[in-house]
Amino acid sequence: MSVEPAAVEDVAAGLRAAGYLPGESTALVAFLATRLGKPILVEGPAGVGKTELAKAMATYLERTLVRLQCYEGLDEAKALYEWNYRKQLLRIQTEADDAGWSEVQDDIFGEEFLLERPLMTAIASPEPVVLLIDEIDKTDQEFEAMLLELLSDFQISIPELGRIEARTHPVVLLTSNNTRELTEALKRRCLYLWLDYPSSEHELEIVRLHAPELPDTVTTRLVEIVQMVRELDLKKPPSIAESIDWARALLLLGAQDIDAETFRSTLSLIVKHRTDLDLVAERVGVRLGVPAT
Ligand SMILES: Nc1ncnc2c1ncn2[C@@H]1O[C@H](COP(=O)(O)OP(=O)(O)O)[C@@H](O)[C@H]1O
Ligand SMILES: [Mg+2]
After folding, report:
1. pLDDT tens for residues 54-107?
2. Are 165 and 125 in contact (CB under 8 A)?
3. Is 166 in the pocket of ligand 1 (CB under 6 A)?
4. Is the CB of 116 under 6 A from ligand 1?
5. How far from 111 is each of 37, 83, 93, 99, CA to CA, in Å?
6. Which of 166, 229, 268, 269 has its CA 20 to 30 A from that of 141?
7. Distance between CA 211 and CA 171 in Å, rounded?
8. Which atom of ligand 1 has the smallest separation from the CA of 22?
C-alpha cells in the first residue's frame, strides 16, 4: 500500500524524512497534486531541487519512481513502447515453415513482443508509481502534444494491440529548466511550481543536511558568500548543487574558515565560467581580502 497524505503538513514532514527540505509552496503543491490527481510542472534554474523533489516524493509515498529523461529528438519509441523486432524475427523464423502469415502476425504483435518504455511502464504498472518526466523543455512541441494526450486520458493506443488503460494513476512530475516556453495547453493541465534559488535560511538548512560535519561557522559563511555571488550578473549563478559541492570540498580540506586563500583556491567549485570567475574573484574576492589580479 502506498501512502496517502491527509494534510499539507504530512507531505512536508514526509519529504523531510526523505531528506528533502521543501520550501513554502512545495509541500502545498505536492499535497494538492496527490489529492487532485494532477501533474506538477516544476520549473526553475538548474540545480535547485526539481529532480530531487520527484525522488523524495517517491520515497515518501512509498512508490516506485519511473523516470523519463528527455532530450532533443526523443520520440515515442523511446518514451512509450517499441516492438521487439529481433524477437519477432526469431518467432517468424521458427514458425515460417508450418504456419500461415495471419497466424504468425497474431503471434508477433502480442504483449510478449512489446518493449515497454517509461511512459508505458508508468501507465501499465499494477502498483501506483511516481512518474518523473525530467527536462521536458528539451523535447519538441510534437512530443509535448503526445504527452498531453497521455496525461489527460491515461491510456495508450497501440494499433496492433488495442488500448492499454491505466490500472492505477501515477503521481506525475514534469520538470523544466525553462530553456523554452512550454505550451499553454500543457501548463493548463498541470499545477505549477516555480523553484528558485533558496533564501539564506533555507539554504543553510539544506547545506547542513548534506554536510552536517562542516563547522557551523563555515557553513554560515559559505551560504553568505554564495548568496552574495548570486547577486552578481553571472552567466551561471551557483545553485544549491554547487553550495553542497563546495561544503563537501571544504569539509574534505578541513577548512575552519573561508579566508581569502581558501576562497581563491576553491572558487571553481561554485563558478564555472571563465568570465564569471574573473568577476567573482574581483568583486567578492576583494571583500574577503584577496588582492585583485
Ligand atoms: N530542498 C532541498 N532539500 C534537500 N536537498 C536539496 C533541496 N534542493 C536541492 N537539493 C539538493 O541539490 C542538488 C541538486 O538538486 P537537483 O534536484 O538535481 O536539481 P535540478 O533537478 O533542479 O537541476 C541535489 O543534490 C539535491 O539533493
Ligand atoms: Mg534535474
Report:
1. 999 999 999 999 999 999 999 999 999 999 999 988 888 887 667 677 777 777
2. no
3. no
4. no
5. 28, 9, 19, 20
6. 166
7. 30
8. 1
Backbone phi, then psi, for 192, in 5-degree steps? Answer: -105, 135
Q: Which amino acid is at 150?
A: L
Taking the centre of ligand 1 as the mean of its atom positions, its distance from the CA of residue 185, in whole angstroms, is 28
Q: Region 5-33: what's the mean pLDDT?
A: 97
211 CB within 6 A, ligand 1:
no
Do 2 and 65 form a contact (C-beta atoms < 8 A)? no
Specify the 3-state DSSP secondary structure of 284.
Answer: helix
Q: Would the CB of 52 count as within 6 Å of ligand 1? A: yes
Q: Are strands 171-176 and 162-165 parallel, antiparallel or unpaired?
A: unpaired
Calculate how far, in angstroms, residue 111's C-alpha sits from the geometric centre of ligand 1: 38
Q: Closest-lying ligand to the alpha carbon of 202?
A: 1
Q: What are phi and psi of 102, to 5 degrees?
A: -65, -35
Three-state DSSP at 100 gives coil
| Pairwise CA distance, residues 211 & 216, whole Å | 10
* pLDDT digits 0-9 by tens, 209-256: 999 999 999 999 999 999 999 999 999 999 999 999 999 999 999 999
Query: Which cell numbers in the block locate residue 113?
Result: 513482443
Task: Report DSSP state, residue 110.
Answer: S
Counting from 1 in the atom list of ligand 1, the atom nearest the Cα of 46 is 23
Q: Ligand 1 pocket check: which of 240, 244, 245, 248 to mutate, most ligand atoms within 8 Å of Cβ? A: 240
CB 292 within 8 Å of CB 286: yes
Q: Is 51 in the pocket of ligand 1 (CB under 6 A)?
A: yes
**217, containing H or E segment:** helix 216-231
| Pairing mode, strands 114-116 and 81-83 | antiparallel
Task: Tell me which residue has its CA closest to atom 7 in ligand 1.
Answer: 49
Closest CA to 23 of 52, 46, 65, 2: 52
